[in-house]
Write a structure and sequence with these properties.
With 411 residues, the protein is an alpha+beta fold. The chain has a five-stranded mixed β-sheet, with helices on both faces. The longest helix has 33 residues. It is globular, with a radius of gyration of 21 Å. 45% of the residues are buried.
């Protein structure tokens, strides 16, 4: 591991870290407190009475994620409990074993880099160009809301939703808003979810997948509903897959996009990136490491055993703090700092997308969407600056409710 290269951009490192902390505290103050306590108390795994076991180490987290038999997503303590009650048994994130592997394989063609590049260019090219033009003209842009519309538009296309203009933008934004509300219903520890919460989540889920029935019946095999029909899934089964793709595809990428833009502004590294565009993909990986779009993961322990000197009990919750994992000081130096020129340690590479059977299907899509937006901003005559920001409160995924940027010197 090499030390951070010092420069003028590093003077904003403290500002960036303060703003990131504010996002976590606004979103989940209890979760943030437990995560920080866990990192100090034990670097790998520790038992928290009344909760279960918390994980903070990078190597042990990867070991857990790769072992789907010992640490399951279908046990009684996982968030999969709520997903199954709301979305049915085919929501991908509440599946394990051969059925899960088989279903993922049938969907892989929809997420290949070649398909993603072609589709994003066709569907999102005009939006990215519009962002550039608005900023170049001196207009202010709320990049947090733009990110939600941007990612939602792509998901509308992939799910066969045939809308245009303002109707498409409204639906794209609704996907994010509904998804955020569903995510906020997920408790830190799942034992049994009360009927009122389930009822509300089902109402939101119905809004999330609205329109997919028609897309399932007549959509092209190049859409997710069409693919589900072609491989023989029933409409009810397809709704679960489509719902989780909608939820994950809008929430995680849009929250990460706004935060990466803020990190580049706060640390002053836009200039560095503009001078050396080859740093773009490294900047995206480093940004995803720092913001960790999904800050935690859950598993149920399937059997009594010992891990890293800690005795684990079957049927207990295992809560992995990915924010800690991606800052593990044993594998990365100055993990709280955002450095677009950093050489990513192999033990961390893409770990924020998971590992093993549940590695994120949408990796190529997320990175392509991020690159399109950052490239649009990089092409401006001058760098951008933040003129207004507000943290989102009470959400599962820390993010900005509002992040307004403009080109420096505009107006």
């Amino acid at each position: 591991m090499r030390p951070l290269v010092q420069g003028t951009w590093d003077t904003g490192a403290a500002l960036a870290q303060r703003n990131e902390r504010k996002l976590f505290i606004a979103a989940q103050p209890l979760g943030w407190t437990i995560a920080k306590w866990a990192m100090k108390r034990h670097p790998d795994i520790w038992r928290v009475p009344g909760l279960g076991y918390v994980v903070s180490g990078a190597e042990v987290a990867r070991e857990i994620l790769l072992d789907g038999e010992t640490y399951t997503k279908t046990g009684p303590r996982c968030t999969g409990v709520l997903m199954t009650q709301v979305m049915g048994e085919y929501a991908l994130l509440n599946m394990d074993g051969p059925p899960h592997v088989s279903l993922r394989r049938k969907m892989q063609d929809l997420f290949t880099p070649k398909y993603i590049r072609a589709m994003t260019g066709q569907v999102l090219g005009e939006l990215a160009a519009g962002l550039h033009d608005d900023l170049a003209a001196g207009r202010e842009v709320d990049v947090a809301r733009f990110a939600q519309a941007f990612t939602g538009t792509m998901l509308c296309h992939m799910n066969g939703i045939e809308l245009k203009g303002d109707a498409l933008e409204r639906r794209a934004l609704e996907l994010y808003d509904v998804g955020a509300e569903i995510a906020a219903l997920v408790p830190l520890r799942v034992r049994a979810v009360n009927e009122r919460t389930v009822k509300r989540a089902r109402e939101l889920f119905a809004r999330l997948v609205d329109g997919t029935d028609a897309a399932y019946r007549s959509g092209s095999p190049d859409t997710i509903p069409g693919r589900m029909r072609e491989i023989g899934l029933s409409l009810e089964e397809a709704r679960g897959v489509i719902g989780i793709v909608m939820l994950a595809g809008t929430e995680t990428t849009s929250t990460a996009l706004a935060r990466i833009v803020a990190l580049l502004c706060d640390t002053g590294q836009w200039g560095r990136l503009r001078q050396d565009p080859a740093l773009l993909y490294g900047a995206i990986d480093e940004g995803l490491r720092v913001v960790t779009p999904v800050p935690a993961f859950t598993r149920t322990i399937a059997r009594d055993h010992e891990l890293r000197g800690v005795k684990l009990k079957a049927n207990q919750l295992l809560l992995g703090f990915m924010t800690n994992v991606c800052r593990d000081p044993r594998v990365i130096d100055d993990g709280d700092k955002f450095d677009i020129g950093r050489s990513m340690p192999g033990s961390l590479r893409h770990l924020w997308f998971g590992a093993g059977a549940h590695f994120c299907l949408g990796l190529s899509l997320a990175k392509r969407e991020l690159s399109m937006v950052l490239e649009a901003i990089m092409r401006l005559e001058r760098e951008v600056e933040i003129v207004d920001r507000r943290a989102a409160r009470g959400v599962l995924l820390p993010t900005y409710e509002r992040l307004v940027i403009r080109m420096k010197g505009a107006g």
